[in-house]
Amino acid sequence: MRFLIIGGSDAGISAALRARQLDDAADVTLLLKDDYPNYSICGLPFLVSGETPEPSMLAHRTRAELLAAGIRIRTGTTATRIDPQARTVTTVNPAGHEDILEYDACLVATGAESLRPPIEGLHLPGVFTMRWMEDGLAIREFIEKREPRSAVIVGSGYIGLEMADALTRRGIKVFLAGRSPSVLKTVDEEMGSLIAQELVRHGVSIFSGVAVESIQQEGSGLLVLGRGVEAYGDMVLVAAGAAPSTDLAQGAGASLGAGKAIAVNQRMETGVPGLYAAGDCVETYHRLLGKNVYLPLGTTAHKQGRIAGENAVGYDAHYAGTLGTQAVKVFDLVIARTGLNDRDATAHGVPARSVDVECTDHKAYYPGATSMHVRITGNPQTGALLGAQIVGSRRAEVAKRVDICAAAIHAGQRVDELTAMDLSYTPPLSSPWDPVQVAAQAWCDKLS
Length: 448
Hints:
By secondary structure, this protein is α/β, with parallel strands linked by helices.
């Protein structure tokens, strides 16, 4: 059985490993444009900051380990055409040599590309995007050789925030410009304001609700201009979101779905016989909404790739769906969320009510207790738990607490059932009622 995988990041590697695990006779070949199989692109901000000192440390597995698992790897190889009738993929290497590879099953795991908004001057030296290993390495090299003292980041989402942290740690003054009224639009504005306070505390200047229109050369640096923003930097990072890479799959006859990503079912099938797709290039089934959305995440890509790998070698696996569970560290703060926030619920016509609480992460009499902000969202008509957002200290187990809520939503629990869960307690770590339970009780009290 010949399984050909186009793309060597999270989805592609997960598919390859799972296929080989279930069928050790399968001929699994991985095609990569670059030379970085199974590298963590989520770790790039930490490579830039210096917290992860060497690029090789971002490899989840070494090339030798992948080869030992029975996976063939072709780096520097670009797939240019899929012929689903002949079941072949045409490839080209850097020297321009074409090759045609045959397959029984093919997975498109081409990921996404950084959005390039209509901003004049994106081509100028010193203007970067952040998506692939080459991007992170180019930024790190620029910092080491040019020693910039200031930077402008266009975009206040996850990458923008992590890079604001990373560049600040390198001693670079950061200006953060975003279109949203508050930073990190995946959480509600009340939570976004807490993140903004942390950024400002570390010297980051914030421009919210602005539209960058141009980047101009100004002396040895760059001037960023637009409605509501004028900022100068020695470098500019454009982190304005991602667009799914779909051309290859479309050329093979695959349709597009939510977010103009590749349309797939829960078996990760495209509808083209023998052709699967997974990762940031595809739409994803949302477990709460019961429909497909575009929500690219590394965790989702791993799961989708595993499903595709199983099915490619003859199994019948189905993707259970996403809740959009995410976490990000910004300096000493962690922000995590799962399910629907107020904006999501309104957009999809779901009745929702949110309640906020502020409490300590563990018993106040034990040293080191810190403030934690928890927002619980539920359906006031059914009592169903819809979402949670938590902001707190890095030491406060914020991400694991949002995972409690993610597990409860995945299981279809009501908000009041969250209060009944038997969670662990000891004074240095929590309270008899965990903060997520305190928030759930507050939600129930407000409803009654």
